Give the backbone structure.
Amino acid sequence: MIRIEEATSTIVSEFDNFDDWMDKYNYLIELGKSLPLIDEKHKTEANLIEGCQSRVWLHAEFDGTLIHFTADSDAVITKGIANLLIRAYSGHTPQEILDSSTEFLNEIGLTQHLSPTRSNGLLSMIKQIKMYALVYKAKQAM
Amino acid sequence: MQFYALDIDKIRADFPVLARSVHNRPLVYFDNAATTQKPQVVIDALTDYYSNYNSNVHRGVHSLSQQATTAFEAVRDKVQAFIHARYRHEVIFTRGCTEAINLVAATWGRKNISAGDEILISAMEHHSNIVPWQMLCEEKGARLVVCPLLDDGSLNLEMLFSMMNSRTRLLALTHISNTLGTINPVKLITGKAHEKGITVLIDGAQALSHMEVDVQDIGCDFYTFSAHKIYGPMGIGGLYGREEVLSAMPPYQGGGEMIKSVSFERTTYNELPYKFEAGTPNVGGTIAFGAAIDYVNSIGLQTIARMEHELLTYATGRLLENPLVRIIGTSPEKASLISFMIDRIHPFDAGTIIDQLGIAVRTGTHCTQPLMDKLGIPGTIRASFAFYNTKAEIDRLIEAIGKVEEIFL
């Protein structure tokens, strides 16, 4: 199992290959189109993240040690962002997720280009991922 | 049209921001329904006020205060003339259209709405003309009744008239829909409502910059507007109210300016319009609003309407050349904005790429979430035009849509 930092630095180096912003978007769109994201049965109201311009579903499963995330969105770019976040955070322990930094999003220029409003769901997704980590950490302690 | 060809460069030069680039491309600004850009004369009026005669109004005998007061009050006359109000004291300055609507809900509404009453609105209202009434209805045990739309996005007038009944106290209706562009026949509707003794508020946020508004001709009791949607600064707007209606209303906020005399036992309220203008007003913003009205008058609302109509017609035609584009809102009477969807592409995806190409359009629900739910769509892409936009800019939007399709389909 690779660490979160390794996953995120791989993502950063992938984005380093692009000079043009259109290329970065094209890559995000590819990621959005390619990922089989979520089981239809998890596209529930309860899994919807509020406040995004597009609909985003985030589902979490905890196997007692690791949290596994799946996600989907009706907008392709948002789906691409979800894909990046899942690559970074899925399959890690609650503690690892809580300790991790979101700096890689700045490094690939995502936070700059996708405005830090809730409209693209980026911040809401991260918040929700960390929230799950917090909840499952509490469960572990029980 | 010769006038158009001759003067557009000169007009664009009046708006400094139009010269800038976004993502290394010349900016195309098609989000005028959200806020319009400001001409240099408006920016200068703000700077001039703060540089040369900033002072509080109505208070001091000193020269600066008098100069500021004169300039501030002159704008009331300008607004009165611009919307054809009978009296200058029928113009109340507020922070904007939203505050004007909230003022009416908080004062007229609290006094006149009781349990069992109905407030009638339409399905095309902006959140600002929904939520204040919802809050009032909740407080009073009244009912909010929503008139549906026809398929083309125009009001279902038959339904609207049939929904006006003996319980209806207020009709709150937008003059122009910010999402669909529909221009409502507000004079006809106001007449029908008044026959039944219903008070009428028209939300003019989208209308003032596009067409000649005559509140006496419309006959409405209230008309609300924002300066920033008519080339003025943000944070200033107004409420027009018929004198009889305003006089009978209790004050809004308490504070300075709205009082005649204050003792700890009793306060007597000032007369119109000051009764509704508590606290230090936005003097600089108001003066710059006046400059915006002067600017619009110097171009002429008829010229503006003609130029915008030409842009609307051109853009509609160009968009409809694309079989994947579906225009939402095709009412015969339409202001210069187009909401549309591209088949199989989410508006957020499209908007993100269109922005990368230097074009500012709005995507999403445009603060009309109930309307989007009703139409069963996740939102639209909205291009809203002002007279400083050009056909060449519309061509860039068409190209951008082509690029969006190339990327996503």
Summary: The longest helix of chain B spans residues 63-83.
